[in-house]
Amino acid sequence: MRETDKIFHLAIPCKDLDETADFYQKLGCKVARRYDDRVTFNFFGDQVVCHLSPEKIDPNPKMYPRHFGITFLDKAAFEETLQSAKKNHLPFFQDKMVRFGGKQEEHWTFFLQDPSNNLLEFKYYHDESMVY
């Protein structure tokens, strides 16, 4: 279970701070700090830091095994994020789909691709017990 007195931290590469800030702000993430070499976001309550390192960008990203994202416990919040991504013309790596259909771990998921080819997954499990 999530401990409310702790915040998860993730550092990822980016090729351009301005386009990175634009993408994450359109996703609804607030800029917490910005320096010449990085920008830090409140990413749905956790901390994502995008470090300027254009030489570290993956030119051919794949969903597995490397991605990060949010698992929603609220179906409406999942749908709201999906609609916001569409409205803001954020690039989809994978449209909304069902994984493990008909099984207890069935969930909806979609993937976005940020300007530096980092892949973000957003998902909602119909059975909350399958989150962990």
Quick recap of the structure?
With 132 residues, this protein is of the alpha/beta class.
Structural class, from helix and strand content? alpha/beta
In the CATH hierarchy, the architecture is Roll
Total DSSP E strands = 8
**Main β-sheet, in a few words?**
4 strands, mixed
Task: List the domain count as a whole number.
Answer: 1
CATH superfamily heading:
2,3-Dihydroxybiphenyl 1,2-Dioxygenase, domain 1
Beta-strand residue fraction: 35-45%
Organism: Heyndrickxia faecalis
Domain VOC: 6-125
Protein name: VOC family protein
Pfam families: Glyoxalase
Structure, described:
It is globular, with a radius of gyration of 15 Å. The chain is built from two helices and eight strands. It has one domain: 2,3-Dihydroxybiphenyl 1,2-Dioxygenase, domain 1 (Roll), CATH 3.10.180.10. The protein is α/β, with parallel strands linked by helices and 132 residues long. A four-stranded mixed beta sheet has the order 1-4-3-2, with helices on one face. The protein has a four-stranded mixed beta sheet with strand order 5-8-7-6, covered by helices on one side.
Topology, pairings included?
Elements (H helix, E strand, L loop, with lengths): L8 E6 L2 H10 L3 E5 L3 E6 L2 E7 L15 E5 L2 H13 L4 E8 L7 E7 L5 E7 L7
Parallel strand pairs: 1-4, 5-8
Antiparallel strand pairs: 2-3, 3-4, 6-7, 7-8
Organism: Heyndrickxia faecalis
InterPro entries: Glyas_Bleomycin-R_OHBP_Dase, Glyas_Fos-R_dOase_dom, VOC_core
Protein name: VOC family protein
